[in-house]
Amino acid sequence: MNRSAATPGWGRESCSIAVQRSADSCRSCSARGAGRSCRAALHARRCLPVVVARGSPRRSSAAATSGGSAANRRIRVFIVDDHPLVRDGLRARIAQEAGMEVCGEADSAAAATASLRRAKPDVVIVDLGLSDMHGLRLIETIRSSDPDIRIMVLSAYSETLYGERALRSGADSYVNKQQAPGTIVGAIRATAAGKRYLSKELADRLLELVLHRRSSGSAGVRELSPRELEVFELIGHGKSTRDIAQQLGLSVHTIETHREKLRAKLLLRNGRELTQAAVRWVLENR
Question: Which of 22, 114, 122, 204 has its CA 20 to 30 A from that of 245?
Answer without folding.
Answer: 114
